[in-house]
Write a structure and sequence with these properties.
This protein is an all-alpha fold. The chain has helices spanning 3-43, 59-84, 87-92, 97-128, 130-134, 138-164, 174-182, 189-192, 196-211, 226-229.
Protein backbone atom coordinates (compact mmCIF):
# COMPACT_ATOMS: atom_id res chain seq x y z
CA UNK A 1 0.00 0.00 0.00
CA UNK A 2 1.36 3.38 -0.98
CA UNK A 3 1.65 6.29 1.42
CA UNK A 4 -1.36 8.22 -0.04
CA UNK A 5 -3.51 5.08 0.08
CA UNK A 6 -2.47 4.45 3.66
CA UNK A 7 -3.30 8.05 4.61
CA UNK A 8 -6.78 7.72 3.09
CA UNK A 9 -7.34 4.42 4.90
CA UNK A 10 -6.31 5.95 8.21
CA UNK A 11 -8.61 8.92 7.60
CA UNK A 12 -11.55 6.58 6.99
CA UNK A 13 -10.83 4.35 9.97
CA UNK A 14 -9.96 7.05 12.50
CA UNK A 15 -12.17 9.89 11.36
CA UNK A 16 -11.32 13.54 11.13
CA UNK A 17 -11.04 13.91 14.91
CA UNK A 18 -8.47 11.15 15.17
CA UNK A 19 -6.41 12.61 12.33
CA UNK A 20 -6.41 16.06 13.91
CA UNK A 21 -5.60 14.86 17.43
CA UNK A 22 -3.11 12.09 16.78
CA UNK A 23 -1.39 13.22 13.56
CA UNK A 24 -1.81 16.95 12.99
CA UNK A 25 -1.56 18.11 16.61
CA UNK A 26 1.65 16.16 17.44
CA UNK A 27 3.50 17.48 14.40
CA UNK A 28 2.19 21.00 14.94
CA UNK A 29 3.23 20.89 18.60
CA UNK A 30 6.68 19.53 17.72
CA UNK A 31 7.23 22.20 15.05
CA UNK A 32 6.18 25.03 17.38
CA UNK A 33 8.33 23.58 20.17
CA UNK A 34 11.49 23.50 18.04
CA UNK A 35 11.01 26.67 16.00
CA UNK A 36 9.69 28.55 19.02
CA UNK A 37 12.88 27.88 20.97
CA UNK A 38 15.01 28.95 18.01
CA UNK A 39 13.03 32.19 17.72
CA UNK A 40 13.10 32.80 21.47
CA UNK A 41 16.85 32.28 21.71
CA UNK A 42 17.54 34.48 18.71
CA UNK A 43 15.29 37.41 19.55
CA UNK A 44 14.84 37.20 23.32
CA UNK A 45 18.10 36.00 24.87
CA UNK A 46 17.74 38.34 27.82
CA UNK A 47 14.25 37.00 28.45
CA UNK A 48 15.51 33.40 28.53
CA UNK A 49 15.31 33.16 32.30
CA UNK A 50 13.19 31.88 35.16
CA UNK A 51 12.67 35.43 36.46
CA UNK A 52 13.62 34.20 39.91
CA UNK A 53 11.64 35.60 42.85
CA UNK A 54 13.94 34.22 45.55
CA UNK A 55 14.70 37.71 46.85
CA UNK A 56 11.04 38.23 47.73
CA UNK A 57 10.45 35.00 49.69
CA UNK A 58 12.58 31.96 50.53
CA UNK A 59 10.85 29.78 53.12
CA UNK A 60 8.12 28.35 50.88
CA UNK A 61 10.46 28.33 47.88
CA UNK A 62 12.93 26.07 49.72
CA UNK A 63 10.15 23.51 50.18
CA UNK A 64 8.15 23.78 46.97
CA UNK A 65 10.93 24.17 44.41
CA UNK A 66 12.99 21.05 45.28
CA UNK A 67 9.82 18.99 45.68
CA UNK A 68 8.51 20.06 42.28
CA UNK A 69 11.82 19.69 40.44
CA UNK A 70 12.54 16.28 41.97
CA UNK A 71 9.08 15.03 41.06
CA UNK A 72 9.09 16.41 37.51
CA UNK A 73 12.55 14.92 36.86
CA UNK A 74 11.39 11.44 37.86
CA UNK A 75 8.19 11.90 35.85
CA UNK A 76 10.20 12.92 32.77
CA UNK A 77 12.55 9.93 33.10
CA UNK A 78 9.58 7.62 33.56
CA UNK A 79 7.89 8.96 30.43
CA UNK A 80 11.09 8.59 28.44
CA UNK A 81 11.49 5.01 29.60
CA UNK A 82 7.86 4.10 29.01
CA UNK A 83 7.33 5.82 25.67
CA UNK A 84 10.72 5.51 23.98
CA UNK A 85 11.96 2.10 25.12
CA UNK A 86 9.98 -0.74 23.46
CA UNK A 87 8.49 -3.48 25.57
CA UNK A 88 10.67 -6.07 23.83
CA UNK A 89 13.81 -4.33 25.11
CA UNK A 90 12.82 -4.64 28.76
CA UNK A 91 11.92 -8.29 28.23
CA UNK A 92 15.31 -8.87 26.63
CA UNK A 93 16.94 -7.25 29.66
CA UNK A 94 15.22 -9.77 31.94
CA UNK A 95 12.62 -7.38 33.37
CA UNK A 96 9.26 -9.09 33.61
CA UNK A 97 6.05 -7.25 32.75
CA UNK A 98 4.83 -7.52 36.35
CA UNK A 99 8.04 -6.02 37.73
CA UNK A 100 7.99 -3.20 35.21
CA UNK A 101 4.34 -2.50 35.94
CA UNK A 102 4.81 -2.36 39.72
CA UNK A 103 7.90 -0.13 39.54
CA UNK A 104 6.30 2.19 36.98
CA UNK A 105 3.08 2.59 38.96
CA UNK A 106 4.77 3.12 42.33
CA UNK A 107 7.42 5.55 41.07
CA UNK A 108 4.94 7.32 38.80
CA UNK A 109 2.43 7.81 41.59
CA UNK A 110 5.00 9.01 44.12
CA UNK A 111 6.64 11.34 41.60
CA UNK A 112 3.26 12.67 40.48
CA UNK A 113 2.22 13.43 44.06
CA UNK A 114 5.56 15.16 44.75
CA UNK A 115 5.26 17.20 41.55
CA UNK A 116 1.69 18.20 42.28
CA UNK A 117 2.47 19.01 45.91
CA UNK A 118 5.47 21.13 45.01
CA UNK A 119 3.49 22.93 42.31
CA UNK A 120 0.68 23.62 44.79
CA UNK A 121 3.17 25.19 47.22
CA UNK A 122 4.68 27.34 44.48
CA UNK A 123 1.24 28.52 43.33
CA UNK A 124 0.21 29.26 46.94
CA UNK A 125 3.42 31.24 47.43
CA UNK A 126 2.91 33.17 44.21
CA UNK A 127 -0.66 34.04 45.18
CA UNK A 128 -0.14 34.95 48.85
CA UNK A 129 3.23 36.73 48.82
CA UNK A 130 2.59 40.28 47.62
CA UNK A 131 5.84 41.03 45.74
CA UNK A 132 5.81 37.60 44.08
CA UNK A 133 2.21 38.03 43.00
CA UNK A 134 2.98 41.48 41.61
CA UNK A 135 5.76 39.95 39.48
CA UNK A 136 3.41 37.28 38.10
CA UNK A 137 2.33 37.85 34.50
CA UNK A 138 -0.67 36.49 32.61
CA UNK A 139 1.76 34.25 30.78
CA UNK A 140 2.85 32.78 34.12
CA UNK A 141 -0.76 32.16 35.17
CA UNK A 142 -1.52 30.35 31.91
CA UNK A 143 1.66 28.29 32.31
CA UNK A 144 0.77 27.24 35.87
CA UNK A 145 -2.76 26.32 34.76
CA UNK A 146 -1.47 24.22 31.87
CA UNK A 147 1.08 22.48 34.07
CA UNK A 148 -1.50 21.73 36.75
CA UNK A 149 -4.02 20.29 34.29
CA UNK A 150 -1.40 18.10 32.58
CA UNK A 151 -0.03 16.76 35.86
CA UNK A 152 -3.50 16.15 37.32
CA UNK A 153 -4.64 14.26 34.23
CA UNK A 154 -1.49 12.13 34.19
CA UNK A 155 -1.81 11.27 37.88
CA UNK A 156 -5.54 10.60 37.53
CA UNK A 157 -4.94 8.32 34.55
CA UNK A 158 -2.32 6.33 36.47
CA UNK A 159 -4.47 5.96 39.57
CA UNK A 160 -7.71 5.20 37.72
CA UNK A 161 -6.22 2.63 35.34
CA UNK A 162 -3.56 0.91 37.44
CA UNK A 163 -4.59 1.33 41.08
CA UNK A 164 -8.37 1.61 41.12
CA UNK A 165 -8.94 -0.27 37.85
CA UNK A 166 -7.59 -3.55 36.61
CA UNK A 167 -4.53 -2.07 34.94
CA UNK A 168 -3.72 -0.79 31.49
CA UNK A 169 -0.63 -1.54 29.41
CA UNK A 170 0.03 1.74 27.60
CA UNK A 171 3.16 0.25 26.03
CA UNK A 172 0.94 -1.64 23.59
CA UNK A 173 -0.90 1.46 22.34
CA UNK A 174 0.39 4.87 23.43
CA UNK A 175 4.08 4.03 23.24
CA UNK A 176 3.97 2.65 19.66
CA UNK A 177 1.88 5.68 18.60
CA UNK A 178 4.42 8.04 20.15
CA UNK A 179 7.33 6.34 18.39
CA UNK A 180 5.43 6.20 15.09
CA UNK A 181 5.38 10.01 15.04
CA UNK A 182 9.17 10.11 14.86
CA UNK A 183 9.18 7.33 12.26
CA UNK A 184 6.96 9.63 10.14
CA UNK A 185 4.42 6.82 10.01
CA UNK A 186 1.84 8.00 12.58
CA UNK A 187 -0.84 5.47 13.42
CA UNK A 188 -3.84 7.20 15.08
CA UNK A 189 -5.70 3.90 15.39
CA UNK A 190 -3.47 3.04 18.33
CA UNK A 191 -4.93 5.97 20.31
CA UNK A 192 -8.61 5.64 19.45
CA UNK A 193 -9.21 2.83 21.94
CA UNK A 194 -7.14 4.11 24.85
CA UNK A 195 -8.84 5.28 28.07
CA UNK A 196 -10.18 8.83 27.96
CA UNK A 197 -7.92 10.08 30.75
CA UNK A 198 -4.83 8.95 28.85
CA UNK A 199 -6.11 10.70 25.73
CA UNK A 200 -6.79 13.93 27.63
CA UNK A 201 -3.36 13.72 29.26
CA UNK A 202 -1.70 13.30 25.85
CA UNK A 203 -3.59 16.25 24.33
CA UNK A 204 -2.84 18.50 27.31
CA UNK A 205 0.86 17.56 27.12
CA UNK A 206 0.97 18.40 23.41
CA UNK A 207 -0.61 21.80 24.06
CA UNK A 208 1.85 22.40 26.91
CA UNK A 209 4.81 21.63 24.66
CA UNK A 210 3.46 24.03 22.04
CA UNK A 211 3.30 26.82 24.63
CA UNK A 212 6.63 25.87 26.24
CA UNK A 213 8.98 28.14 24.19
CA UNK A 214 6.99 31.23 25.10
CA UNK A 215 7.05 30.73 28.88
CA UNK A 216 9.66 30.66 31.61
CA UNK A 217 9.85 26.88 31.13
CA UNK A 218 12.62 27.48 28.58
CA UNK A 219 15.10 27.51 31.46
CA UNK A 220 14.71 23.72 31.72
CA UNK A 221 16.57 23.41 28.41
CA UNK A 222 19.44 25.60 29.54
CA UNK A 223 22.68 24.18 30.89
CA UNK A 224 25.52 26.40 32.15
CA UNK A 225 28.08 24.77 29.88
CA UNK A 226 29.95 28.05 29.48
CA UNK A 227 31.13 27.80 33.07
CA UNK A 228 33.26 24.80 32.09
CA UNK A 229 35.38 26.69 29.55
CA UNK A 230 35.38 30.32 30.64
CA UNK A 231 38.57 31.67 32.29
CA UNK A 232 38.81 32.00 36.03
CA UNK A 233 38.09 35.31 37.68
CA UNK A 234 41.12 36.03 39.84
CA UNK A 235 40.85 38.32 42.85
CA UNK A 236 44.09 39.74 44.28
CA UNK A 237 44.67 41.83 47.34
CA UNK A 238 46.96 44.84 47.17
CA UNK A 239 50.55 43.88 47.94
CA UNK A 240 52.63 46.61 49.62
CA UNK A 241 55.84 44.90 48.53
CA UNK A 242 55.10 45.76 44.90
CA UNK A 243 55.37 49.48 45.55
CA UNK A 244 51.78 50.16 46.45
CA UNK A 245 51.32 52.50 49.36
CA UNK A 246 48.84 51.72 52.07
CA UNK A 247 45.97 54.23 52.10
CA UNK A 248 46.12 56.93 54.77
CA UNK A 249 43.43 57.20 57.39
CA UNK A 250 41.43 60.37 57.45
CA UNK A 251 42.88 61.55 60.71
CA UNK A 252 46.55 61.05 59.81
CA UNK A 253 48.72 63.94 58.69
CA UNK A 254 49.99 63.69 55.11
CA UNK A 255 52.85 66.18 55.37
Amino acid sequence: MTAPERAVTLAVESGTGGILLWIVLPYLSLAVFVLGHVWRYRYDKFGWTTRSSQLYERRLLRIGSPLFHFGILVVALGHIGGLVIPESWTHAAGISEHTYHVVAVVLGTVAGVCTLGGLAILIYRRRTVGPVFSATTRNDKAMYLSLTVTILLGLAATVAANIVGGGYDYRETISPWFRSIFYFQPDPDLMTGTPVLFQLHAVSALLLFAAWPFTRLVHMLTAPLGYLTRPYIVYRSRDVRLGARAPHRGWERTG
